[in-house]
Amino acid sequence: MKKTILALRPVLPDEMAELDSHFNVLKLWEEKEPEEFIKAHKNEIQGVLSTYNSAGVRAAMMDALPNLEIISQFGVGYDNIDIEAAESRKIAVTNTPDILTNDTADVALMLLLNIARRGVEGDVFVRVGRWQKGPLPLGVCLADKTVGIVGLGKIGSAIAKRCCAFDMNVVYYGRSEKNVSFTYYNDLKSMAHDSDFLVLACAGGPETENIINLDILEALGPKGFLINIARGSVVHEEDLLIALQNRAIAGAGLDVFANEPNVPEEMLKMDQVVLLPHIGSATAETRSKMGKLVIDNFLAHFEGKPLLTPVYLS
Ligand code: NAP
After folding, report:
1. Among 186, 166, 168, which Cα is nearest to 177's?
2. What's the confidence (pLDDT) of residue 18?
């Protein structure tokens, strides 16, 4: 008999069809009364397909599903899953690391280039006919500038590699020094002070919540740019607004926000920001690989094999 999976959000159609071929899939996003639906099916559900942009799985949901064995996350970040609660209930958790590293690092560079060289602004400038009235204001050169990376993990390292190709000086901040040639800072404010571009690539969750506040942004300074491809929760969004409004920083390139898909009204009117709708991993190839890995983790679990990409409390 097929096992039952509760899918919180859909994956791509091909992978959705593959999931349907292996499992009895309950599609929560199609339900008008999701809580009632979960209650009605609570005893059948043995797996949850969670996604980086869903409400995730907290302890209350785990308690509501007495036969839940595995949560397979579509995404590398798992800040919307209570890992401690899952471990204490012996519920396995998996994610989709590595396969999205290059795409997400590309988006960081896309933001960095666009904010520094006014790419998006230049496109609008041409389209609305302002070129005939004069030139676009000058941009900022990348070569020889210092990029401070917060979180030199897989994506942070891929960003560093790309920044080196642009002849930038790379430094980083994290919980521990790595065996790399880049300068390490154990103090975020000092690194922000010494950086021209502060790029956020760390994990989300309680430990990194609001670590980028007005104090850090003021240290980055009026010529500094903030790039965030990590999680909206890493930045104190009201402080960022204040810093942008007061020109305490030069600008920001943002792929993630505190309350997605909502972006602060004030930001929509600012020229000195580039805003993207959380597209770090959003290529057809990568999203397909992510969906396959989600399914492979479910299959491994229910066949009693080792999980491909398990997540544990760090
Ligand atoms: P990873 O290899 O596990 O790297 C996570 C990094 O976060 C590590 O370098 C770690 O550094 C750092 N970190 C964790 N806690 C920290 C803390 N308290 N203070 C400072 N740094 C901390 O994961 P990854 O694959 O690079 O992904 C990183 C994050 O990118 C994900 O968690 C996700 O939130 C985000 N992401 C966003 C998108 C998007 O679409 N925008 C796509 C994919 C991923 P240390 O261990 O050295 O402290």
Report:
1. 186
2. 98
In whole angstroms, what is the distance from residue 35 CA to residue 54 CA? 15
Structure tokens at 229: 């491809």
Best residue among 79, 155, 209 to mutate for probing ligand 1's pocket (most ligand atoms within 8 Å of CB) is 155
- Closest residue by Cα to atom 4, ligand 1, is 153
Measured from the Cα of 208, ligand 1's closest atom is: 18
Show me where the domains of the chain are located.
4-97+284-302, 101-275
Please list the ranges in the chain whose pLDDT falls under 50.
Answer: none
Domain pair 4-97+284-302 / 101-275, same fold: yes
Confidence at residue 314, expressed as pLDDT on a 0 to 100 scale: 73
Question: Which residues pair with residue 45 across a beta bridge?
Answer: 4
Which one is catalytic: 118, 162, 236, 278?
A: 278
Predicted local distance difference test score (pLDDT) of residue 72:
98
Residue 230 pLDDT:
98
Say which residue the tokens 């590699």 belong to: 161
> What pLDDT, on the 0 to 100 scale, is given for residue 17?
98
Q: The domain 101-275 is classified under which CATH number: 3.40.50.720, 3.40.50.2000, 3.10.105.10, 3.40.1000.10?
A: 3.40.50.720
Distance between CA atoms of 55 and 130, rounded to whole angstroms?
Answer: 43
Q: Cα 122 vs. chain centroid, distance in angstroms?
A: 27
Q: What is the pTM of this model?
A: 0.97
Please state which architecture CATH assigns to domain 4-97+284-302.
Answer: 3-Layer(aba) Sandwich (3.40)
